[in-house]
Every structure is written in C-alpha cells, then in structure tokens.
C-alpha cells in the first residue's frame, strides 16, 4: 500500500516525540523574555544619527549613497543612467516611483516597468538585457547599512537582481536601528494580513564572494553596483 | 577503530599535510575570520548574552521539535507550498526524483546545501540523466574538480587560483588567466545562462520560521536568489532541526550567524521566502517543495549528544580549531569537517563510520568557547571517546593509549598542568617544535599529527595576562 503524505508526517513527528521520551507535543510556544540582548543598542538614537550610521555602514560595504530631496530624485537617476550609458532600464511598477516622475523614456533610454500583463518570459528576458534596475525600499537598517525590499506583484524579484546596477530609493524616515525593527514589521504584517509577500529581501551592498583564495570579488551573480538614493524629505 | 579505517584516516591526513597551499590557505582564512569575528563581538558589547539567548532558543526548539515542525508544515501548506517529511536520505531522494520527473526536468541549478551532500544528491540526479549545476562559486569549482566541500562556508578553500583557472579554462575552451576577478566574471557569465535554462532550482535552508511557514537563506553571491527567481519550480532541502519558532527568535540567531561565520555583520543577501509565487507575482517559482530531512538526526534526540542539534552551521569551530588548521576538511572524510563534524558525523552514520574523528582533536576547548549557540563541542568529543573505549572497540593497546591520552587532555585541570609542564617535559621527544612520533602514550595520535609542542605559555594563561588587555585596548580605539 502506498503511504500517504500524512502518514509520513505522523510517523516522522511521532518518532521525534518518542526519541525525546515524551508524548507528541502540539502548540508549543516560545518562552517570553523580559529583556533582549539588543536592548542596550540604539537606546537614545535620533533619526539623524540613524541616517548617518546607515550611510557609514552602507558605504563601508561598497554601496554608493546619494542624499537627495524628492524633486532631485529623477535628476540623480538620469545621472546614473548617463554614467553607465544604459540603454535599457527596468523599474518596479510602483506608485511611489511614479511620483518622482519616472517615465517610459529618460534621456534616450527605454524604461520598462514590471507589469504583470507583460508576462514572465518577456519581463525576465528584458531584465537580462537591462543595465539598471530601480526599486523602492521598505526600510533601511542603520546597524548594517541594509535595505529591505518587499517583493510582490509589480515589485518583481528580478529588478534588484539581474541588472548590473541596482538603484534603490529609500525615504530617510524609514531608516530604523537594526534587524529587530524589520522583523517586527514582518511579524506585524503577517498578524494583520495573515500572509506575507512571497519574498522579502534584505540587501546589504553589492553581490560578493571570496571563494577564490579569499580575495574579495564584487558582482559574482547579483548586481555589481548598488546605489541608494536617500530621500531626506520623505 | 578498525585497522582499515585508521589506515584510511592516516592516509588522508598525510595527503593533506603535504599540501603546502592548503596550509597557507587555512591559516589565512582562520586568521581573517577570527579577527573579523572578534571585532563584531566587540561591537555588540555583550556577546555572551547573545550566545546564551541563542542557545536557549535553539534548545527550546529542539525540545519541542515535533510541535514546531507541524506548525511549520501547516503554514507552508496554507501558503500554497508542498511539504515532504523524509525519514531517510533515500526517502528524500525518491521524493525529489518524483518531483523533477513530473516537471520533465533537463537541468537543475543548485545553491549551497550541506544536507544535500549527505545524500549525494548530484550524483543520484545525474544518474537520472539530469544536468546538475552548482551555482555557488566555491561549489561550482569543486563540482568541476569532482570533489567535495572542505569547509562548511568556504567549500573550495583548498583550491588555489591556478587550479581554478585550469578548471574554468576547460569549460571555456580557452586559456583563462589565474586572476580571481576574471575567473569570477567568467563564472558569472557562464552560470547566468544556466538559471534561464533550468526547470528546477534547488536551495538549502538556513532557518525555517514556524509561525508563518517562511524560511530564510543567508548568502553573499546572489546565486540562491537566482535559483529561486528564474526556475519555475523550487525544491528546498532542510535538515529537520533547521527551524526557529518565531521571527523574534530569528533575530538572535540571524544576528549571530554571519558574525560567527565570516565576521560580517550581515551577508549581502538575507532572503525570506513565504510560499511559492503568488497570483499577482510574475517571477519566482510556481511550485515550492520543502523536503524536511531526518537522516539520522532523530537518533541524537534524547541522548547526551542532543545539544549538537542546536548547531546553526556557521563554521566558527572550524575557524578556531588547531586540528582543522593542520589537516583541512577533506582529511575528516565526512560531509561535516572540524569539531562539529567530529561530533556530528559518528552520530549521523548508521554504519558506525567516522569513529576516529573524535580523536582528531586536542580538546583545547576553543570550539566550545567560540560556538554561538554554546554547544559543548569539546565535552561531546570527550563523550565520544569514552563511548568508544567502553564499547570495546579497538585493541586493548589502543584503548589504553586513548584512555591515557583522554585522561590527560580531557580533564581541564590536568590539561592545564600538563600543557604548562609539557613544554619542558616533552623537550626530549620534540624536534623543531613538534612532538615526534616516539611518545608512547600519544603514538596513535602523533602518527597522524605531529603534535605542536605545547606553547611556553598556554592560551588560557595568555588570555588571562594579555588577551583581555588586548581586547580592552581595541575597545578604547
């Protein structure tokens, strides 16, 4: 008789209980802690302090930081497109990006938005040929210089992954102390909506490896350059 | 241990010891990782508190593993993913074969997974006619060389750039320069095509999160992101203990993993998956299969070795181990090398293999001290030795020698006295600062390892006198 998946699971879990020397357990809860190892960190941090720390850590791991005002975002993007002579640009289909005036054509380069209607083949093939990908950051983490992207719908995974240059827009007000705040936000999202985006990305600098003789090499599979446009008035 | 096993071990160690590059490479890696790890600990300011909390979280999880795995499985299904519980490596392989057949798979891109090494996944799927492509740069190198990883996080640490250039030149069909940047660039371009071709992507799992059915990958290169973005099916292989209850619990272990492993505050990418792609998503896998693997792990539950299941696979114990530094990963002859491998491998093996590994240790306690989840590795190594002797394995002569050695090095007080006095006492036996093979009590051990002559000042003494001072100075910078 063919065993069902459920029998498999029951046998597997019953065996664990047996080896642990007690009956099957369900509904275990994590211990509640009164204090955390990170409590002493960032106790009196100001938003300006966090922004500065983000900038320091982000640049230390090889990121390019541009501090801009809302109206200066599009100019910064143009400059980067010119710098890399990019012909093809890929961007999230995201209202927050449209507000900066990002349009289908910027100084002679084609901008394609990650639109569901275009389908997988067409979008990933375009992504493969794009030199630049543009995204919008949910959170920035000061301690590590990390940006947090929620990938779903128009906010495709490939945009921050396939092009050699990734530009992420980060509102200054969204910079938080550390991982703790990001994980709290994820947990809140899950509790409120009963689900999460299929992918949440914590990105810290460009793609890197030290697999050959421990020599640090940038851009092995993911982007070689990471720009964060830190929008100070957002 | 049988004479034959012992012989093979001796051969592997001797082979490693002849490799000059390996020695330099391991020393370089250990030094660099150590410095970075210490700097990260200093920044946090209360590393012992972090470790203690991580240990408690992991211990709680293991003690309630059935409950958390069930919760995880329920949530994965709710998110639209498939779960398979595999009691053995064969179960896991059968399921994976079934999935890839259903998907009419010709090629698979794979990102790093140690548990897949336990089941020789590549070999098995290649026999099914499937093209397997390792995409982590280090794993790609050793796949081309037809070798196995020699370090948990730096799998090709034993290869130099000339060897890599030779391997890549063969693929390229032309001579490539032995420059790490050029070689990496070649791998980027070559592997890029593979992600688009592959029907299935296989990844590991660093941490599953029971409360939402999510799982997290901790990587630097981006190959795991590629493997989970472009292929239409994703298979995740996770050891059954690779789970935490909540996102809050994840905070502690995720903060410690990269800091303990490479000394990074965080890796370039931490990627949190929840289910396959949703209806509104364009890229990402349409199908997600998570295979939860036991393969000998449950036999460790309820035994004095249970704490080894707290391991988060950071490799810090390899990076501080004087034996690993001396002999490298391949000499262990097991999937997991270093102190964690010496404890875990004999336990995972159903054929009672790897019994010699717990003797490949100086019991200097550096591994226990560095472990971010406070696994008492050195104590467990000692337990293995006791078991070995008590189970009447090996000849009486061997037993006595091991027992004597165990008595000296196993007891901390005795060891300290021995280490302090040994320098003078062993001088007649030593040659160029290494204890020669003639010392009778150590015969079995020194046969494979020219034991360094105990330092004039032991580490513990150095730490008391100077080490603490040195880190204090670091603090004032």
Give a written overview of the molecule.
The complex is a heterodimer of chains A (234) and B (477). Chain A has a single domain (47-231), classed as NagB/RpiA/CoA transferase-like (Rossmann fold). Chain A has 234 residues and is of the alpha/beta class. Chain A contains six helices and 13 strands. Chain A is globular, with a radius of gyration of 22 Å. The model of chain A has no long low-confidence stretch (mean pLDDT 95). In chain B, helix 3 packs across helix 12 (247-261), helix 15 packs across helix 17 and helix 18 crosses helix 19. Chain B folds into two domains: 3-50 and 302-476, no CATH class; 81-293, Rossmann fold. Chain B is built from 21 helices and 13 strands. The model of chain B is unreliable at 403-454 and 467-477 (pLDDT under 50). With 477 residues, chain B is α/β, with parallel strands linked by helices. In chain B, the strands form three sheets. Chain B has a six-stranded parallel sheet with strand order 1-10-7-4-2-3, with helices on both faces. Chain B has a four-stranded mixed sheet with strand order 8-5-6-9, sandwiched between helices. Chain B has a three-stranded antiparallel sheet with strand order 11-12-13, with no helix packed on it. The chains are: A alpha/beta (234), B alpha/beta (477). Chains A and B meet through helix 1, helix 5, helix 6, strand 10 and strand 11 of A and helix 2, helix 3, helix 4, strand 1 and helix 8 of B.
Please render the helix and strand layout as text.
The complex is a heterodimer of chains A (234) and B (477).
Chain A lengths: L4 H16 L26 H14 L3 E5 L4 H11 L4 E4 L3 H4 L6 E2 L2 E5 L6 H10 L2 E5 L2 E3 L4 E6 L13 E7 L3 E2 L2 H15 L5 E5 L4 E2 L7 E2 L6 E7 L3
Parallel strand pairs in A: 1-13, 2-4, 2-5, 5-8, 6-9, 8-13
Antiparallel strand pairs in A: 3-4, 6-7, 7-10, 11-12
Chain B lengths: L2 H16 L1 H25 L2 H17 L1 H14 L3 E5 L2 H14 L4 E4 L3 H5 L2 H7 L3 E4 L2 H8 L16 H12 L7 H18 L2 E4 L3 E3 L4 E6 L3 H5 L5 E7 L3 E2 L2 H15 L7 E6 L12 E7 L22 H5 L1 H6 L10 H11 L17 H5 L6 H14 L5 H15 L1 H14 L4 E2 L2 E2 L7 H6 L2 E2 L6 H18 L1
Parallel strand pairs in B: 1-10, 2-3, 2-4, 4-7, 5-8, 7-10
Antiparallel strand pairs in B: 5-6, 6-9, 11-12, 12-13
Helix pairs in contact in B: 3-12, 9-10, 15-17, 17-18, 18-19
């Amino acid at each position: 008789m063919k065993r069902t998946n459920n029998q498999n699971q029951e046998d597997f879990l019953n065996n664990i209980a047996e080896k642990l020397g007690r009956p099957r357990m369900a509904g275990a809860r994590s211990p509640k802690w009164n204090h955390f190892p990170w409590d002493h960190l960032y106790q009196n941090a100001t938003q300006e302090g966090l922004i500065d720390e983000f900038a320091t850590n982000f640049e230390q791991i090889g990121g390019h930081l541009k501090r801009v005002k809302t109206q200066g975002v599009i100019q910064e993007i143009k400059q980067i497109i010119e710098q890399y002579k990019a012909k093809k640009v890929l961007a999230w289909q995201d209202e927050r990006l449209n507000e900066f005036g990002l349009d289908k054509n910027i100084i002679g380069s084609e901008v394609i938005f990650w639109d569901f209607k275009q389908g997988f083949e067409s979008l990933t093939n375009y992504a493969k040929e794009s030199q630049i990908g543009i995204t919008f950051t949910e959170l920035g983490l000061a301690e590590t210089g990390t940006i947090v992207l929620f990938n779903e719908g128009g906010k495709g995974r490939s945009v921050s992954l396939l092009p050699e240059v990734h530009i992420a827009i980060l509102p200054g007000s969204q910079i938080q102390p550390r991982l703790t705040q990001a994980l709290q936000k994820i947990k809140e999202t899950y509790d409120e909506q009963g689900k999460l985006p299929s992918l949440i990305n914590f990105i810290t600098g460009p793609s890197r490896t030290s697999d050959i003789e421990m020599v640090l090499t940038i851009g092995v599979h993911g982007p070689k350059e990471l720009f964060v446009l830190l929008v100070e008035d957002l | 241990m049988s004479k034959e096993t012992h012989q093979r071990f001796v051969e592997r160690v001797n082979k490693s010891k002849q490799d000059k590059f390996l020695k330099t490479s391991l020393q370089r890696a250990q030094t660099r990782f150590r410095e970075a790890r210490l700097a990260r600990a200093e920044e946090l300011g209360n590393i012992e508190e972090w470790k203690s909390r991580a240990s408690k979280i992991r211990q709680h999880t293991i003690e309630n593993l059935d409950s958390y795995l069930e919760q995880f499985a329920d949530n994965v299904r709710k998110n639209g993913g498939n779960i398979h519980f595999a009691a053995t490596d064969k179960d896991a392989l059968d399921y994976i074969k079934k999935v890839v057949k259903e998907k009419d798979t010709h090629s698979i891109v794979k990102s790093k997974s140690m548990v897949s090494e336990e089941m020789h996944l590549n070999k098995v799927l290649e026999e099914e006619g499937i093209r397997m492509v390792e995409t982590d740069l280090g794993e790609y190198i050793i796949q081309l060389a037809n070798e196995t990883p020699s370090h948990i996080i730096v799998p090709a640490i034993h290869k130099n750039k000339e060897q890599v250039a030779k391997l890549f030149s063969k693929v390229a069909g032309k001579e490539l320069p032995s420059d790490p940047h050029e070689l990496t660039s070649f791998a980027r371009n070559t592997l890029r095509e593979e992600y688009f071709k592959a029907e299935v992507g296989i990844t590991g799992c660093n941490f599953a999160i029971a409360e939402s059915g999510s799982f997290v990958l901790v990587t630097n290169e981006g190959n795991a992101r590629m493997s989970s973005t472009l292929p239409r099916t994703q298979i995740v292989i996770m050891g059954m203990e690779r789970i935490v209850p909540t996102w809050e619990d994840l905070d502690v272990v995720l903060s410690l993993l990269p800091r303990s492993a490479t000394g990074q505050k965080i890796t370039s990418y931490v990627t949190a998956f929840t289910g396959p792609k949703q209806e509104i998503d364009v890229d990402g896998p349409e199908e997600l299969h998570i295979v939860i693997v036991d393969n000998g792990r449950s036999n460790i539950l309820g035994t004095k070795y249970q704490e080894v299941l707290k391991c988060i696979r950071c490799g810090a114990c390899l990076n501080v181990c004087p034996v690993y530094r001396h002999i490298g990963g391949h000499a262990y002859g097991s999937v997991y090398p270093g102190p964690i491998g010496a404890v875990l491998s004999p336990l995972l093996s159903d054929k009672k293999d790897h019994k010699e590994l717990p003797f490949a240790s100086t019991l200097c306690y550096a591994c226990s001290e560095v472990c971010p989840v406070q696994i008492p590795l050195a104590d467990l190594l000692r337990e293995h030795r006791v078991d070995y002797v008590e189970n009447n394995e090996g000849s009486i002569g061997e037993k006595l020698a091991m027992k004597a050695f165990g008595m000296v090095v196993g007891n901390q007080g005795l060891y300290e006295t021995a280490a302090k006095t040994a320098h003078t006492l062993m001088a007649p036996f030593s040659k160029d600062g290494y204890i020669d093979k003639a010392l009778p009590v150590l015969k079995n051990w020194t046969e494979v390892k020219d034991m360094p002559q105990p330092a004039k000042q032991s580490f513990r003494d150095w730490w008391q006198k100077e080490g603490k001072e040195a880190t204090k100075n670091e603090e004032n910078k």
